[in-house]
Design a protein that fits this description.
The structure holds two protein chains of two kinds.
Chain A lengths: L1 E10 L5 E7 L5 E3 L2 E10 L4 E10 L2 E8 L2 E5 L5
Antiparallel strand pairs in A: 1-2, 1-7, 2-3, 4-5, 5-6, 6-7
Chain B lengths: L1 E4 L2 H9 L8 E4 L9 E4 L1 H5 L8 H7 L4 E4 L2 H15 L6 E4 L3 E4 L5 H4 L2 H16 L3 E5 L3 H10 L4 E4 L5 H4 L13 H9 L5 H6 L2 H8 L2 H10 L17 E12 L2 H22 L1 E12 L4 E12 L2 H15 L6 E13 L12 H21 L13 H4 L3 H4 L9
Parallel strand pairs in B: 2-4, 7-8
Antiparallel strand pairs in B: 1-6, 1-7, 2-3, 5-6, 9-12, 10-11, 10-12
Helix pairs in contact in B: 4-6, 11-12, 13-14
């Protein structure tokens, strides 16, 4: 399911956007340890398309999408 | 090459709603506003023989489980833009044909990116993965065959039509597949015994001319692959030939007063667009469709070119009064203007109307435009429109951004 999330991101002086943490709606904050890939991609599971950041969060790989000016992830648990 | 997004509106809707992806889906207009026709359908719905343009109830008879989705034009425009961004990685010769189709000339990029087929495959792959919708692409040596190629195999496919194999592929297709062979032309061709594009290509040109006049040469050239029209550069904006708006009213129009309200809104939009582009028009054209869906258009030349809302409106109303007697109620109305000249030209003065009036009216319209641009379309409106708020509550200037286009 598509879930929009709150994200803290860094804009560098070249205009690149890098997400730093994902702020979950129950108050938990997940640090993004590393971003291994950035590309345009569609998410067929969540339903949307935008810039896809492949994020490493505590040994887990997770896709974080920036669609225009909103961030979303594919929340598998609620399916 | 020609690239065509398969069931564009429906694909985008399916992408956003994973739940409906494996069901027959059709994107429809707003039924409450009586725009309830099928605008696009996905591959599954296609199998039920659902056609673009048919009313929703008819489609539901063919396929009761059909999912009807509301249209989201902002999404389609965004995806259309994203597609064009991908195309522009390969060439700057991009000629859009509606929202979902485009011709690309990649001749100059073949040394960098490989053959036309390679580029087509790459574009197909990228659009599928980056945007989540599918395209079919036709690669050929002219625009007409490229378009045939993109229709030949779909969805998500690339068809290459070369000078060597076009006789095997193109010439076996039905004539109706050719661009600009519609129902009427097809019927006429069938009468002449022409069923396939190959037969059309071989048909004696002088006989064709007797039947089709100047279109004969076009049909002959199209079917023989002799179309040399270049793909436009993406920054070339073709000259505007006409500006128009039309609408299907929320309810049937029963009186002249009803029609006048609609005409006021339409003329306001058309004239604002005309003034934005810096034109004055000399010809005004109206189109009227009654409840039995029969349509007629009437046009008239004005004394002098104008971009004043009042003048255009009066011309419309006059045309309408002369040509319609309300024996049937009206379903939809349209207004368009053409024969443009730039608005900085000075015009012939006349003893029949006062220049001062024109200047005053121009200043008034200009002020209204400024107010509307700042505070929105509904900030200011004629008192007449308050009589029937429901009827007047539409904004053709901003709501209708999807224009059909012609090849010529």
């Amino acid at each position: 399911m598509k879930q929009y999330v709150s994200v803290t991101a860094k804009f560098d002086s070249d205009g690149n956007i890098l997400p730093l943490t994902i702020n979950w709606n129950d108050g938990r904050v997940f640090d993004i340890d590393r971003i291994t890939d950035i590309r345009y991609a569609a998410s067929l599971k969540a339903g949307g398309a935008g810039i896809r950041y492949t994020c490493r969060i505590k040994q887990n790989e997770k896709y974080l999408y920036l669609e225009e000016n909103r961030w979303f992830i594919n929340n598998e648990k609620e399916q | 090459m020609h690239s065509d997004c398969n069931g564009f509106f429906a694909s985008v809707e399916c992408l956003y709603n994973p739940d409906i992806r494996n069901k027959p889906v059709a994107v429809c207009g707003d039924q409450d506003k009586r725009h309830g026709i099928i605008l696009a359908k996905n591959e599954i719905a296609k199998k039920f023989n659902i056609k673009t343009g048919e009313p929703i109830w008819q489609a539901l008879q063919k396929c009761p489980e059909l999912v009807t989705a509301q249209a989201h034009y902002d999404r389609y425009i965004r995806f259309s833009k994203l597609c064009r961004e991908i195309y522009s990685d390969y060439t700057d010769n991009i000629e859009p044909f509606g929202l979902d189709e485009a011709w690309l000339d990649v001749t100059g990029s073949t040394l960098v990116y490989g053959s036309g087929k390679d580029i087509a495959e790459e574009i197909r792959y990228r659009i599928k993965h980056e945007l989540g919708i599918t395209v079919s692409i036709g690669v050929s040596f002219n625009k007409i065959f490229a378009k045939l190629g993109s229709d030949y195999k779909k969805p998500d496919a690339v068809t290459v039509i070369t000078k060597e194999n076009y006789k095997d592929i193109v010439w076996k297709l039905k004539v109706s597949d050719l661009l600009y062979v519609g129902r009427a032309t097809e019927k006429k061709l069938h009468k002449l015994g022409v069923l396939t594009i190959g037969e059309l290509a071989d048909f004696p040109l002088n006989l064709l001319r007797q039947n089709f006049g100047k279109w004969a040469d076009i049909l002959h050239n199209f079917s023989n692959g002799l179309d040399y029209s270049p793909v436009m550069k993406s920054d070339e904006v073709s000259a505007v030939k006409s500006i128009g708006n039309s609408t299907t009213a929320v309810r049937d129009l029963q009186s002249f007063e009803d029609a006048k309200i609609i005409f006021m809104v339409l003329c306001d939009s058309v004239c604002r667009r005309m003034r934005e582009q810096g034109f004055r028009a000399k010809t005004v054209c109206i189109s009227v469709r009654n409840t039995e869906l029969s349509t007629f258009t009437r046009q008239k030349k004005l004394e002098i070119s104008t971009n004043l809302t009042k003048d255009v409106l009066n011309a419309c109303l006059k045309l309408f009064k002369q040509n319609y007697s309300f024996d049937k109620n009206i379903r939809s109305l349209g207004v368009s203007v053409s024969d443009f000249e730039p608005d900085y030209l000075s015009h012939q003065t006349s003893i029949f109307f006062s220049e001062e009036d024109i200047i005053r009216q121009e200043q008034l319209d200009c002020t209204i435009d400024t107010i509307k641009n700042r505070f929105g379309n509904y900030a200011l409106k004629p008192a007449k429109l308050m009589f029937d708020k429901e009827l007047a509550a539409f904004n053709p200037k901003e709501e209708h951004t999807v224009h059909p286009v012609g090849y010529f």
